[in-house]
């Protein structure tokens, strides 16, 4: 393969790579935004649930911590699934693993 063909092939490859990266970048930025908002909301929702359960006299203290953690991690898992879906990961196999 002559040097000129190698240079042309490399140039074509780099142009294609740059175009694909430019097309993927908005989805990646939206996914990062989804992650930031989701993790923030998970913490806030966990705090709200902890406060609500702290006021209630009917919920035992040993149950409050695990309930708050469950709420937080459910929101985080949902956030991760939405962010992965945004970047193009197929959710059918992941949802099958989660049950």
Automatic annotation (TrEMBL):
Known partners and oligomeric status: Homoheptamer.
Signal peptide start and end residues: none
Compartments it resides in: Cell inner membrane
Alphabetized Pfam families for the sequence: MS_channel_1st, MS_channel_1st_1
Record carries keyword Phosphoprotein: no
GO-annotated molecular function: mechanosensitive monoatomic ion channel activity
InterPro entries named in the record: MS_channel_1st, MSC_TM_helix, MscS_archaea/bacteria_type, MscS_channel_TM-2
Membrane topology: Multi-pass membrane protein
Mechanosensitive ion channel transmembrane helices 2/3 domain sequence ranges: 70-99
Role summary: Mechanosensitive channel that participates in the regulation of osmotic pressure changes within the cell, opening in response to stretch forces in the membrane lipid bilayer, without the need for other proteins. Contributes to normal resistance to hypoosmotic shock. Forms an ion channel of 1.0 nanosiemens conductance with a slight preference for anions.
Organism in which the protein naturally occurs: Aureimonas pseudogalii
Family: Belongs to the MscS (TC 1.A.23) family.
Cellular component, GO, one term: plasma membrane
Origin superkingdom: Bacteria
Main location: membrane
Record's protein name: Small-conductance mechanosensitive channel
UniProt keyword terms in alphabetical order: Cell inner membrane, Cell membrane, Ion channel, Ion transport, Membrane, Transmembrane, Transmembrane helix, Transport
Sequence intervals crossing the membrane: 28-49, 70-98
